[in-house]
């Protein structure tokens, strides 16, 4: 009954604010924030409406007060909903110490009460959660606070409905990308993991790429340290590169020399070759690879000869084929080295044309045919 009275009062307040916004062209930004706040409160109050359990099923009881716990339709108790609202408010309005404690408590809540993620299904909740990251520069942002908030993002982003709406406020993308580059190792790791998770939803791939996600991942892969982050960063870049525009961004953001250097050093070869293969299929990728063909051709031929992994060989022949047939063949020193290998019946490409996987054989034969024409 008390909730219903409060809902009625909030609706009346909202109605007045809407009228004011509709009539007054000079409404200030506080009016809009008040309307947004009331909508958020109404949403949370709606969550608090307890459902009627089927006959014969008794609700769980509170072990302290031995009173029935009311559960809403999502399976979250009204007590947990109220706690969520209180913690989110503390993160949004509190000072640094209050924010840090509230963020840690909310993180525990997302881990101990998995259904709590449904309460994040609004732009307002995400905005309030990440507001400390938006309004503080790196010098004034406590690393523990950033780590807790980014970990919350990771915990809730495993759910498809969250994936679909989390990046709608573009600032969310900016803050996640920033967290990949700044903060504790755990913050950066969880930010990368969030990108990997969010990229399962196709529209997010474009958003993450355009707002610096590809560049940030390339920087991590190419760094001299951060070894514990590279595996995850490569997985995330691979997923983003399933979208054509991100393959081009990988070239523009300096990805090809970074990838080649890692492969030459013998590190993450099997993980990076598929990315190089995808990137080589773009015009800008093939041009960039031809500019480095003194490195590319010997490296790809060596891997085809020496690797025991069919996937590595297949990726290498795709790189060679795309580099020298897309959009037109060229005549460089390395190109003649490739032709020399092609003329050798025991050469790497000829051998692959006979003994590789079906895809590798097809591409190797096409490459041999193309090399005969030029």
User: Under the CATH scheme, which architecture of the largest domain would be assigned?
Assistant: Alpha Horseshoe
Count the strands? 0
Largest sheet: none
Overall residue-averaged pLDDT value:
82
Count of DSSP helices?
21
Any idea of the CATH class of the largest domain?
Mainly Alpha
Radius of gyration: 27 Å
CATH H-level homologous superfamily name of the largest domain:
Leucine-rich Repeat Variant
- The SS-based structural class is mainly alpha
CATH topology of the largest domain: Leucine-rich Repeat Variant
The number of distinct structural domains comes to 3
What characteristic shape results from the CA principal axes? elongated
Q: What distance lies between the first and last C-alpha atoms, to the nearest angstrom?
A: 84 Å
* Residue runs with pLDDT of under 50 for 5 or more positions: 47-69
Helix/strand order, N-terminal first: HHHHHHHHHHHHHHHHHHHHH
Percent range of helical residues: over 70%
Keywords: Ubl conjugation pathway
Protein name: Armadillo
Organism: Macleaya cordata (Five-seeded plume-poppy)
InterPro entries: ARM-like, ARM-type_fold
